[in-house]
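As described in the Methods, two query proteins were run sequentially through the folding procedure within a single session, without resetting any intermediate state between them. The first query and its resulting structure tokens are shown here.
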Amino acid sequence: MKVAIIMGSKSDWPVVQKAANLLTDFGVEIEKRIISAHSTPVQAEEFAKNAEANGIDVIIAAAGKAAHLAGVLAAGTPLPVIGIPMKSSTMDGLDSLLSVVQMPKGVPVATVAIDGAENAALLAIQMMGLKYPELRQAMKDYKKKMEEDIVKLDEEFQEE
């Protein structure tokens, strides 16, 4: 069980680290890299082409502004790619969101919210749950605990 987390810049790490932490909590191995669709396109192509052979199950790609990283990786691999549009100084990340979500036919990228690292990790876990029953069960347990926490919070709130 392995997820690659690819960032366009090291400045993305404080947000993307939340995905890495959550994946680690679920027992998923991570490989983290800084690869730019624009500055290192050859490395992006090579990474995508070899990801499956390197044991990766899902790729999470985080980039801001033009945010082409997820699409470039998706073009070169049969693996699922989840794009995290990063909030940037330009348009508060709307430009990134539109870049990641507007993929051409035949090159799908699952897209989460701007800076939505935790949901990217959870979506990767759900995808891998199709192959790994222990992850599917861990996700069921996670959702059950989330429900229990909200019910408890509601009960405490009603008592105030």
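Immediately afterward, the second query was submitted; its sequence and tokens are:
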Amino acid sequence: MSALSDFLAGVSVDAQGRALADILAYSDAELERRHDFIQWLFPLPDPSRAVPGSPVLSGGDIAAIRASDPARRNLEAAAGRMLAFYEANDHWLGSHDHNHLRITRIIRSLRLLVGDSEANGFRDSVRSLAAAAGASINPTTLAFWDAA
């Protein structure tokens, strides 16, 4: 196990000393204001350009997380928390917002670590929220969500 897979399994903390449960308990204002947690909740095999030094998924991490029921459940809980954030807030519903990058990350990470069903479900839910609000999410962003 690595620091990343242990964090997602709920048995260790991130580089800031936060447990996964601590992050999931953030208020919506904290989720919006903080920018250094999303790379831990939804890691990718690419380095983050937004937060240098963030964890990067290795092949071993992917295998360990996919094999860990607690890590997969925690990823699903994290996706649920982020979806609740998007349901409760509308500031992300413009044509450009940093949350659009977060959404792309979440979809990609879920696809890699949990599976297509969870990734597609999250994407479809976010797209439905945007459509119901009549949001003008730019076509490039929608294409990134679909490609993720």
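The two ends are 26 Å apart (CA to CA). We note this only descriptively and draw no conclusion about the first query from it.
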